[in-house]
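Model: Ready when you are.
Researcher: Fold this.
Model:
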Amino acid sequence: MRAHLLPPLLLLPTVACLDPATGTPRVDVEVWVADQGAGELIVWRSRDPGGADLVADAARLGDGFAPSAVAVDGDGLLVADFATGALTSLTTDGAVLGRTRVDPAQAVRLEEPCAVRVEGAHLLVLANDSRNLVELTRDGEVVRELGAERPLRSAHGFDLLDADLVIVASSPTTPDAGLLGIWDLATGDRVSDLARWPRLEEATDVLALDDGTVAVADWWTGTVSRWDPSTGERLEDLGEGLAHPVALDRGPDGAIWVLADDGAWRIGDDGAELEAPLALRWPRNLAVRAVTPAGASPPR
């Protein structure tokens, strides 16, 4: 089913198949968007950019389905439901493969998940209402929890700086708390606070980059900026004038993809460009992956 088209005059031309910075063809991608307000998971494909396809909704996954986070999970997807806290594994065409919930025998809550990540056989889930980050097995067994002793207040997104070090993006809470917090997953300690308000006004997501810096989305100012997590220095603005950027992901070619109110933006060497104009009700999260032709090796 085709859906979510903006008026035709707002659609981008489809002839630009080369990267302006390198002159080489761009990698074809699929961009999966969790639209919590519409209760829909949709996908936009760069090969067919005229609209988006519906992958999952309440009719397929049950009344009240409210997708608040999505991540690529092997050949499929992992989707978090804001209302129930369930983590659903899907094929790319929306068939349910299985569900993960926290084992109720464990004294760990997982309420209102807002970001997910697949790490090998384990799942990492950031939850807004229970104010924690939980590492789970596929069977729902809690491996470790961050936030049990010191809650992650008003957290929105996270990424790993290394195997045990996580950086969390959040809303401003107290004057002495930074909007970027670095935590040690092994000890549960908050290692450092960066970017106190108003250097950032509403950090909605953070993305670790290959050079050791991080990209940060600021919902209020409409910017995506690059920071050094070791010093707390704001290095540069990567994108400006975006309509409430809420989530970030890396493309297979190294570009940064940004979910905003008006669709999915791509930030590459040529700057920020609205690649996928979409009509969304309450966009929450996105995941990007390469489209590999049959028989070909995936791009590195």
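Researcher: Now this one.
Model:
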Amino acid sequence: MTLTAPSTQPWLKRLPTLLYWGFFVLGLGWMLYIWSQSTGTPADDELTHVLVARSDWHYPFLILDIWMRVANSLIFMIPSLLGLNGVRLSAVIMTVLTLLLTTLIGKRMGIKWLFLIPLLFWFQPWVSDLGYTGIKSIPFMFLLTLGIYLWLSDHPLWAAFLVGTLPLSRHEGIALTGVWFLYMLYRRKWGAAVMCWLPVALYNIVYWLQFHASFQDLPIAIYFRPQSSGYYGSGPWYHFFPPVVVGVGIPVLIWSVFGLPSLRPLRGKAIWMVLPVTYFVVHTVIYLFGLYESGGYGMFLIPIAPGFAILASLGVENVIRWLPAVPALKKVVPVATAIALMLAVIPPIYATTLTTTPRLMNEAEHTAQEAVNWMKNYGAPDEIIYATYPWFNLLYGLILTPDKKYITNQIMEDKPIGTIFLWDLKYSDVNGVTREFLAQRGWKEITRFNGETIIVYKREALTGS
């Protein structure tokens, strides 16, 4: 059936490609705009990632840091030399690569209109909100998607290795590794089953060789200490549902529901969907019982965004394929198809551009800049300056020595006379470095900023007066 005149047929053939790159550029451009206007951060941990990765060049053993995770250290090390924007640029690259891999995954799953994938990936609000940030979830999303692609490309060993690196980016990745290990056993792929645990085994061996650590101090031991301090609390079983709905966006979520029927006939090609589902369930259980110091933040779950892009694309194709079977629509299928496509395009773009706004520095973060300016004029050498506020450390350009990475009262107890400490309202007391503690041990206030937001102390004696 000829739908267009012969002279326009070449354009018709090129239309899917033009639409793909059109949506690609539109979505990427929106995220880059959000980045360009964002002076703040979704979490202070992003800043600490930059600081630790930059300090790895001075203290290579910090690459093995359990909190930072070795995969993130290796990924962010070179970008960290360019500061926060360098790390954010690497995050953009990983997000773009994730989208390209998601497209290849969609192709292997039989999606015909691949231009739907960049549309339904970029225009999930949390992608443009977080896809440029240096949070741990971005490397995790990239590694997970790459592992899935390798599996569908018939590279089971490399796929298993990539899934095995997930715990080296986020600790809860161990559950996905375990699930994939069981699946490899079920498929009798013994080599791939062993490969699942190779990254974790190598990491723990290298850690042991470097630090001569006992078992309880090895990275693997963290999984045997689920107890939490209670600082982050816990939440109900549905805690993550609202942030996922907001993050994915209602339009993409609805289209994903229509994509679910396609999973059963795909069978082996869709088995990877168990990984993002496992990831969601694990986070739900962890926060439900308040385990492992989980903050319960919605941004943790952005690695499931590619799965929703695939499901939603399948959903759009399903609806359009079902239209001719609806008796009332038989005579208006082209019109109904056009309407369905408009509903696939306009609502996600509208919802994302409406709800995604730049992240701006708050009052405390501006106060950190004031403290930085004052300290620059004060002229103290970097070696004697200690601070618990990541914004100060980043803006000042401090290198995190091992005793500056996580400052506690035990660390500050032994600092010599003349040491400078910047107490802050957000982190210092949590770390045990209270104002009372400082006063009792010979620390005197020099100046303060914005009330009690940041207070600069100098040690003038080894005990309080």
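Researcher: Key takeaway?
Model: The beta strands are 385-387, 420-424, 443-449, 454-459.
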